[in-house]
Specification:
Helices cover 37% and strands 15% of the residues. The protein is built from eleven helices and 15 strands. α8 crosses α11. The two termini are 22 Å apart.
């Protein structure tokens, strides 16, 4: 098969171009404009969370939250261990020390019991974190109720990193609906895309008002340029927002297609020995951003440095057929940049990293393509 099958390419429906043309016709090309306001309004309607600020990236949203909390050198921030580095990078850039919380085996998301242990110890040491950043991994919400209760008890702000989970639900509530604030990503490989971009949401309108001002260089309301504090150039452009408006219309269909490809994978691979799929938590419904499998390792790996030999061989077999796949996130406590950083637990995220593989999951994936991918997997040496 010569056509490359990508992991999670964008899927366009057509109205994106119409919305872009409308944005061009309005002559609002630079950041801000009618499409930005429309995207924020329609996104807030979908989330049932009325305060949204569209930004240049999800990382920008996290940086604005770190600014709001005045995170600086000497502070600590707790974060999911199994995640992409951007979840914690904004806090570390400001001088904070990260503390990582391992996953639980039933959801792969932040383990509430380990968070409770970490918060208890932090209180004893009179060093509670400035924030807890809990990540919705691979399209599945973390346990919002338990995490919210813990953070409320210790009066620590809970930030939900929903970059990967738009469209998922927790107890019927949309992904990111909980927490002090939540952030979303619209990069090219996410559930919906604006090519690049992010959204910051909160139930606190004052927080979003301040974030919106800071995202536009913190200009005061004068005819001239006056600044009481320094801000950032983080606002989403009107053209990018137009793509988001068109993509948001497609979200239900994108979610349907992603779930369908997940079911096809289950049908094709469900009986292979030693192969399992990421479990779906009983408290919600996943968006299936990526279909993720695990393979039993040949033996327990010591001094984890990379995926298991089985996963490495499977990636190579798929690549020979021009099929993109990817290991799971390498845990933060194993990253060279975080040497000697405190981690609560760690074995679950290490096990998932060594044994896990992300499979192509784009909304445009066909049944024939899924079958071809699965045939390559079935013919791999580790299953023969």
């Amino acid at each position: 098969m010569t056509k490359r099958i990508f992991l999670s390419p964008p899927w366009m429906g057509g109205n994106e171009r119409v919305c872009i043309e409308e944005a061009f016709a309005s002559n609002y090309i630079a950041p801000c404009g009618p499409m930005v306001e429309r995207f924020e309004k329609e996104f807030s309607t979908f989330l049932q969370k009325s305060n949204c600020c569209a930004l240049s990236s999800c990382s920008a949203a996290l940086d604005l939250l770190c600014h709001e909390l005045n995170i600086q050198k000497g502070d600590t921030v707790f974060c999911s261990d199994l995640t992409f580095v951007a979840s914690i990078a904004a806090a570390v850039h400001r001088g904070a020390t990260p503390v990582f919380i391992d996953s639980d085996e039933t959801t792969w998301n932040m383990n509430p019991d380990l968070l409770a242990e970490a918060l208890t110890k932090a209180l004893q040491n009179n060093r509670l974190p400035k924030a807890v950043i809990a990540v919705d991994l691979y399209g599945q919400c973390c346990d919002y109720d338990r995490l919210t209760k813990l953070c409320s008890t210790y009066k620590v702000p809970l930030i939900i990193d929903s970059a990967e989970s738009l469209g998922a639900t927790y107890q019927g509530r949309p992904a990111g609906a909980d927490g002090w604030a939540s952030v979303y990503s619209f990069n090219g490989n996410k559930i919906i895309t604006t090519s690049g971009g992010g959204m910051l949401t909160s139930r606190d309108p004052k927080l979003i008002e301040r974030a919106r001002k800071r995202s536009q260089q913190s200009r005061e309301n004068h005819a001239w340029y006056e600044h009481v504090e320094l801000g950032y150039n983080y606002r989403m452009s009107n053209i990018v927002a137009a793509i988001g408006v068109g993509q948001l219309e497609l979200l239900p269909e994108i979610l349907r297609r992603k779930e369908q490809s997940f079911r096809w994978y289950q049908q094709e691979l469900g009986q292979l020995p030693g192969l399992a799929f990421m479990p779906e938590a009983p408290y919600g419904k996943a968006s299936h951003w990526l279909t993720v499998i695990t393979l039993d390792a040949d033996k327990a790996l010591k001094g984890v440095t990379g995926p298991s030999p089985k996963i490495t061989a499977l990636i190579a077999a798929l690549e020979r057929e021009n099929i993109e796949s990817r290991p799971l996130w390498k845990p933060m406590h194993l990253q060279p940049v975080f040497t000697d950083v405190t981690v609560y637990g760690g074995r679950v995220s290490e096990k998932l990293f060594t044994s896990g593989l992300c499979l192509p999951s784009g909304a445009g994936l066909t049944e024939a393509e899924v079958k071809h991918i699965c045939d390559v997997i079935k013919q791999a040496e580790c299953f023969n």
